[in-house]
Amino acid sequence: MKSYDCIVIGGGVNGLTTSAILGKAGKKVVLFEKREMVGGLASTEEFAPGFRCNTVLDSVPWFNGSVIADLELENHGLRFEGANITVTTLESVGKELSISSDMDGTRRSIAQFSERDAERWPPFCNKISMLTDFLAPLYKITPPPIPDLDLSAFFSMKPILKPVRKHGREGVVELLRILPMTMIELLDEWFESEPLRGTLASAGIRHLNQGPMAVGTAFNFLHHHVGSGSVCPVQFVSGGTGMLADSLRSAAENAGVEIRTEAEVSSIILENGDASGIALTEGEQLTSTTVVSSLTPHSTFQLVGQQNLAPRFNRRLANIKYRGATARLHLGLKSLPRFTSLDENALKSMVSLSPSLSYLEKASDAAKYGQVSEKPCIEFTIPSLREESFAAAGKHVLSATIQYIPYHSRGSDSITLRQELRNNAITQLENHAPGISNIIEEEYLLTPTDLESKFALTEGNINHGEMMLDQFFFMRPTIDTAQYSTPIENLFLCGPGTHPGGGLHGTSSFNVAMKILKEK
Amino acid sequence: MSMNRKYDAIVIGGGHNGLTAAAYLARGGKKVLVLERRHVLGGAAVTEEIFPGFKFTVCSYVVSLLKPNIIRDLQLPRFGLELIPLESTFTPLEGDYLIRWADHDLTRRELYRHSPRDAEAYDRFGKTMSQIGMAVRPILNTIAPDPTKLGLSGTRSLMQLGRHFRSIGSDKFEQLTKLMTMSSADFLDEWFEFEPLKATMSASGIIGTFMGPRSPGSAYVMLHHYMGNIDGVFRAWGFQRGGTGAVSMAIARSAEHFGAEIMTEADVRKIIVGNGRATGVALENGDEFQADVVVSGLDPKRTFLNLVDASDLPDDFVQSVKNFRIRGSSGKVNLALDGLPDFTSLPGDGPHLGGAISISPDYDYIERAYDDAKHGSFSKRPYIDIVIPSVLDPDMAPPGKHVMSCFVQYAPYSITGGWDDGKREAFGDAVVNVLAQFAPNMKDIILHRQVLTPWDIEKKFGLTEGNIFHGELSLQQLFFLRPVVKWADYRTPVRKLYQCGSGTHPGGGITGAPGEMAAKKILKEWR
Amino acid sequence: MSISVQTQFTGATSLKVTPFHERTSVLNQSQEWRRWSGYLSATAYDLTHDIEYYSIRTKAALLDITPLHKYIIEGPDAEHFLDRLVTRNIRLCKVHQVMYTPWCDEDGKQIDDGTIQRLEENRFRLTSAEPNMEWLTQNSAGLEVDIFEDSTATASLALQGPNSRAILNSVADENIDSLKFFWLTDLRIGDIPVVISRTGYTGDLGYELWTSQDNALPLWDRLTEAGAQFGITHTGLHALDMARIEAALILLDVDYISAQHAAIDLRKSSPYELGLGWTVKLNKNNFIGKKALEEEHRNGPEWQLKGIEIEWEPLETLYRKVDLPPQLPGMAWRTSTPLYSGNEQAGYATSGCWSPILKKYIALAHLKTKYAREGTPVQFEVKVEHFRKTTPARVVKTPFYNPERKRSCP
Asked: H/E/C letters for each residue in chain C?
């Protein structure tokens, strides 16, 4: 039987990051990926002949700087494009709101709707950056075991005190006040114009099953801003999101990591209750003293077998909330769609269909009853305007993220819901780009169910668990696994199901690798 | 006017918290005057004979949270506090029903009928909630520190809390964290499977709030209601004999016994401030009273935006008070009945009428009611929490007749177009229609109907937006954040002006806790 | 039975009644009942319980034990499931064998105890004091096993006492002489199919009978009729409580609190602490609580449940001082009673009784390990005419009463 220092399950950004760092530290590491390519949620794929897309995520607003530096990812081809990218919100034809890191431009755009809001924009941005200042160091540490803090755990939290020196205790209190807010409550304190409120709130509800009136959406909003430095941050990877995975893969291979694709792990082997290796679907078995899984907690422990877990942990595991409600729709288009009021620059940035808070809230109402939104919240971009390789000359790809289509549907079957969502989304796009449906050549729709089967995403939640306050920090994914170790000795979690959660940032996997290097 | 125009303390508002504060201050030897705008005492906890022979606890209707130490300290039983426990919680369903009884075996058997698993989980749930209630109690009894300026005692009390949480262990801490952050529906889903049980339990997470059972944050409100305490039994709700107003009357008599003066129909126009210090109050009729200390039992918006000149308050404080969330979401329908309702699913007279009756068949039902409100109208098919006090207390209605009190959600304060008589009656009709769906004889037995919209409640009781809690019980409005950070210890930016209403820590419900703790703080700081 | 006036008791109850209620409600002379798992259960049928107690030890006692919780567990993984659930090695349990076992939570603290009957290769019946459905289903995740509640569908009776075998032989279609202790058999009584297990809660020769609730009354009648000549006596819980203390069989909620329901950790007990160390098989496959129990086994338990015997002479002397003969508890008590060693509290007794057959005052007690050795003297707190006194007792071997016939076959 082959033996390794470390076996990593899952070849997404986190699996690659952990294996590359461990490999670089001299460990003998093997990584298994079920699909024919690595990348996971950071994949760029051909979805139809001649059309490529960033399958799940277009924007990578923040990637952990320590990982980039440690693995010298720039030498492996990683480049980000962050300048001059706008988020344009379509309210009604002829009235668009554009938000970007350009403060004056953004203020002018807001002023079309409200002078008062335009004035409040800079202090708002300062407030958000102050709040994310507090979160940033928190995101980089391994959560301490709360409430049983010992002295060393207490000191491990020292980095989070740094912003207190900068912003004072008032800042902490303000953070505590704002984290549990609803998006509406937060925005009521600042803005009156609906397109602005809608755009900001769309970050608060991103990938959630809840609407902007839900407690904790302010937290989710901040989550999407940590590390980025501006409000509504968008950042693309040159060459497509898949290039992020490719650079990590190259760094990993360079560090001696053995990467095996089309190799699905069927179980984690236990010896006296401790992880001792893995078995592949085709029967091969490998041993290792360390097994790291980048899968969701649910998928990971399926590999262990519920009957091998203690009752309390089984209960905790079953109580993790996933509830994916986001779909991805990729359209292969004959030509560039004509949006009544958007120029090419806007189209290659991010466009948001979230004209008001009540629009978003109504969209989320449907999800409560297991239905799809009649008027969904949509965020799209046309990546082929940035990347020539995405479509043949003259042709284009439109990639949209659509909410809500709940994983747990009720009443209708999934095929009907799927169709409904597709039609509802196209109808919304038609409003702003009349005739777009006539130029569709290819369509590729990924509902939460599809995401689940394709990427082993439990319930299709791309964050590996809802980003809500009850699943944050020392509670993520459960109170006894928040330190990345699990009740199964030698088995670690490194996916976004662990602290600090969703997004392509490589932080949890970096933390895990450091922990393993320290302990083993 | 009388010579006694100079008092040690003036309490504005004769609700249960104002009266409690007054009683404690008087008991501490202070000369106290309570000023109540209305002709009756009790604020939201008042009983009135609206129709001849029929007595209604107009606004709040059940008592469970009144702190036992207040009952002891103020000798309330001596002054007329008599609590009759509710016997059951009855949830009528289409073709079936769910009842929870005071008796453990009966409840288990009833739950078993619907779900054996839930019958077992119910015990463990009760145990867990009471343990968490115990874990939280020290916080409720702590005067909120100012975390931005920790003095010696503030640091000490924070450290004590830290030690306390370490001692409760990770299992309970996990549950507590979940209760603080989750929706009541999600929290209950972790325990139970029978939807009507979950929906009915989740309802205590929405009462008095503008949230649905699936709104994160509602689990905390559920916990808040779980801390109800009669005879040391958790979640034991009861009626006051003679109506909830008698609770206030008992506190008032106790206050008077300790020497406080109580004046009704005394509408305070403003709090007189000189050199940044409260010196007295002025009434609408022009009378003025001087006092060393002024205590307001009103909600923060009324106190600081109506009674104090903005120029006497720091700007950021005023802004924070404006940001303080008070959202009215509930209405009240009081019915005088010719007989008892006859429920299709459990016909006839019986002990199920001697408890709470909850119209909460499933989560979706309540969520849809919430959706209506959220988008600007009253619930077409509302959640209703019903009690028929006359079943347990015959004095409340003429012989053979009954009073039914319906607490209804949702009736949003900010209804599109505003409330008017037409909407009020339509809202009343919606309630009666839902009742009639479960008890078809309802329409025939109604003798009189009183409908109170949030506007009515605001006007009548001076509750901003008609919110019974003086402010949402949301995480960012609790403990040292209630009502405003740095001013969560009953003090205010105006020296010698204190607050003691439900808008302060530990929040709403007929607990008396804010009144008690404010009075204790005032007495401690007295110079 | 004494002189009785023909009368009909009527009454309403919201509690559950067993399928034997039509008989038991008429027989219950004092109409005194106790709650048992939400059922009405007779405390004694006669006006005093002495006769019933003696019938357990000298004749045959018939008890309605239907309120016991019963679960049927079946499926290909049934054995695996139970083996993971309980501390004993279920893989060793043969078809028609019965095992007594506790089960624990993952901290090794006891949740409940009961018997497991292996009815078929892949079909078991589990009995328990408390409802356990939630715990069972929760821990069956990932296993191919079905769990059914069998509490009301199956009526159960206990027939206990030296004459019980003779009674069953007189009514059953098969002789049960060869049925060994903690084994079961399928047979018929008249045309009623019955499972008979040689088990009980009295520590005497005895059997438990399991049948469909529809057959409850005919079975009761048949046993009553055939048992008459063997002195069969309808027996209630008071007598049973004394017999089980003599046999040193622990009772949930009296001698220990289920780990599922204990409000605080201090109230929880492990099998080692309850004298059930013999049921914990650390060499078998992983089971719930194993890690914690291994550790406890290494370090030794902090507490131990033991029998104590209160010495007669000093007790008599205490009472003589107030001119009274010793006042002995007529029935079993279950109030926690402190035990001292010098100035230190050595433990506490949880239930006790005067054993009429042994003529000894006995009790079950939790003792700190250093006081738990056999023969250790302790002081037992007793109230003599309203005043607290202590009187000497000592730790003794249990069961207090253990007749040869309990296990033997003719």
From this structure: CCCCCCCCCCCCCCCECCCCHHHHHHHCCCCCEEEECCEEEECCCCCCCHHHHHHHHHCEEEEECCCCEEEEEECCCHHHHHHHHECCCHHHCCCCEEEEEEEECCCCCEEEEEEEEEEECCEEEEEECCCCHHHHHHHCCCCCCEEEECCCCEEEEEEECCCHHHHHHHHECCCCCCCCCCEEEEEEECCEEEEEECCCCCCCCEEEEEEEHHHHHHHHHHHHHHHHHHCEEECCHHHHHHHHHHCCCCCECCCECCCCCCCCHHHCCCCHHHCCHHHCCCCCCCCCCHHHHHHHHHHCCCEEEEEEEECHHHHHHHHHCCCCCCCCCCCCECCCEEEEECCEEEEEEEEEEEECCCCEEEEEEEEEHHHCCCCCEEEEEEEECCEEEEEEEEEECCCCCCCHHHCCCC
Cis peptide before C399 (omega within 30 of 0): yes
Angle at A47 between CA A41 and CA A48, to 5 degrees: 175
Interface contact flag, A311 C286, Cβ < 8 Å? no
Share of chain B above pLDDT 70, in %: 95
CB contact under 8 A, C38 and B108: yes
Largest CA distance in chain B: 69
The answer for residues whose C-beta is within 8 angstroms of residue B185's C-beta and 6 or more apart is B198, B202, B213, B214, B218, B363
Give CA C143 to chain center in angstroms: 31
Contacts of B40 (CB under 8 A, 6+ apart): B46, B48, B245, B264
In chain C, the residue whose alpha carbon lies closest to the alpha carbon of B191 is C134
- Using CA atoms of A322, A326, A327, A331 in order, give the dihedral in degrees to the nearest 10: -150
| Residue numbers of A between 354 and 373 with CB closer than 8 Å to B | 358, 361-362, 365, 368-369
DSSP state of B309: -
* Digit-coded pLDDT (tens) for B193-216: 999 999 999 998 898 889 999 999
Give the integer Cα–Cα distance in Å for A495 and A11. 11
How much is the average pLDDT of B154-171?
A: 78
Buried b (16+ CB within 10 A) or exposed e, A84-110: ebbbbbbbeeeebbbbbbeeeebbebb
In the block, residue with structure tokens 């034990």: C65
A311 CB near a chain C CB, below 8 Å?
Answer: yes
What's chain A's average pLDDT? 94
Phi-psi category of C311—alpha, beta or left, where left has phi over 0 and alpha has psi -120 to 50?
beta
HEC per residue, A355-390: CCHHHHHHHHHHHHCCCCCCCCEEEEECHHHCCHHH
Beta pairing class for A291-293 and A6-9: parallel
Q: CA of C138: which chain A residue's CA is closest?
A: A311
Percent of chain B with pLDDT over 90: 67
How far CA B315 is from CA of A116, A189, A191, B477, in Å, comes to 18, 15, 19, 19
* pLDDT tens readout for residues A243-262: 999 999 999 999 999 999 99
pLDDT at C273: 97
Classify each residue of A370-384 as buried b or exposed e, where b means 16 or more C-beta atoms within 10 Å of its C-beta: bbbbebbbbbbbbbb
* Segment B440-458, tens digit of pLDDT: 999 999 999 999 999 999 9
Within 10 angstroms of residue C186's Cβ, the number of other Cβ atoms is 12
User: Is a pLDDT exceeding 80 seen at residue B151?
Assistant: no
Q: Is A271 on the interface with C (CB under 8 A)?
A: no
Start-end of H helices in B115-243: 116-140, 152-181, 184-189, 195-203, 218-226
CB pairs under 8 A between A and C: 27
Peptide bond between residue B506 and the one before it cis (omega within 30 degrees of 0): yes
List chain A residues with pLDDT less than 70: 93
